[in-house]
TrEMBL record:
<comment type="function">
    <text>Catalyzes the complex heterocyclic radical-mediated conversion of 6-carboxy-5,6,7,8-tetrahydropterin (CPH4) to 7-carboxy-7-deazaguanine (CDG), a step common to the biosynthetic pathways of all 7-deazapurine-containing compounds.</text>
</comment>
<keyword id="KW-0004">4Fe-4S</keyword>
<protein>
    <recommendedName>
        <fullName>7-carboxy-7-deazaguanine synthase</fullName>
        <ecNumber>4.3.99.3</ecNumber>
    </recommendedName>
</protein>
<dbReference type="Pfam" id="PF04055">
    <property type="entry name" value="Radical_SAM"/>
</dbReference>
<comment type="similarity">
    <text>Belongs to the radical SAM superfamily. 7-carboxy-7-deazaguanine synthase family.</text>
</comment>
<comment type="pathway">
    <text>Purine metabolism; 7-cyano-7-deazaguanine biosynthesis.</text>
</comment>
<feature type="binding site">
    <location>
        <position position="48"/>
    </location>
    <ligand>
        <name>[4Fe-4S] cluster</name>
    </ligand>
</feature>
<keyword id="KW-0949">S-adenosyl-L-methionine</keyword>
<keyword id="KW-0479">Metal-binding</keyword>
<dbReference type="InterPro" id="IPR007197">
    <property type="entry name" value="rSAM"/>
</dbReference>
<keyword id="KW-0411">Iron-sulfur</keyword>
<feature type="binding site">
    <location>
        <position position="84"/>
    </location>
    <ligand>
        <name>substrate</name>
    </ligand>
</feature>
<dbReference type="InterPro" id="IPR024924">
    <property type="entry name" value="7-CO-7-deazaguanine_synth-like"/>
</dbReference>
<comment type="subunit">
    <text>Homodimer.</text>
</comment>
<feature type="binding site">
    <location>
        <position position="51"/>
    </location>
    <ligand>
        <name>[4Fe-4S] cluster</name>
    </ligand>
</feature>
<feature type="binding site">
    <location>
        <begin position="50"/>
        <end position="52"/>
    </location>
    <ligand>
        <name>S-adenosyl-L-methionine</name>
    </ligand>
</feature>
<feature type="binding site">
    <location>
        <position position="210"/>
    </location>
    <ligand>
        <name>substrate</name>
    </ligand>
</feature>
Amino acid sequence: MEKQEVLALVDKGIMLPLMEDFYTIQGEGFHKGTAAYFIRVGGCDVGCHWCDVKESWNADTHPPTNIDRIVENAAKYSDTIVVTGGEPLMWDMEPLTSALKAKQLKTHIETSGAYTLSGTWDWICLSPKKNKLPEGRIYEEAHELKVIVYNKHDFIFAEEQAAQTNADCILYLQPEWSVRDKVTPMIVDYVMKNPKWKVSLQTHKYLNIP
């Protein structure tokens, strides 16, 4: 297939720069502890300095893969599919989610919300970043808000973001892994004083699984 033809298919969401896909246990947020199949899409320009998947940033290093193949693999393992990145909303998610839905699979996304929401989702985890704030509509659609806490100023950011979400959105504060010993006690104290928030941990790292 010619390069221009491939790029056109990627632009339409028929192919996606697939970094990896795998079956594991969801480690974070509302669905932690449940089995799910993860589709990690390459490409991200949000640029979090503490990102633990920086190899996902450059989409050009990940092969454009037809969504039919991605969906076929996913359907073998689980009825819950989590699309993550990178930043998956850099790409049109409608073709992928339509193909997943055609197989009666549940669709979850983990996103910074920095790009316009596309696709049909059963669960939207919005994890906003200061570097590139979410597009407005996703605040209304998000099922959970997950704010990563790196320092005390992130609590202010968390409240600013929470004020824009819908009334049913579940609110999480999650320690950034590299400073977890320092910020986890701060999060515990904050949640006890502000019980609308819940604590999220990267339990998959404690379990030593992907």
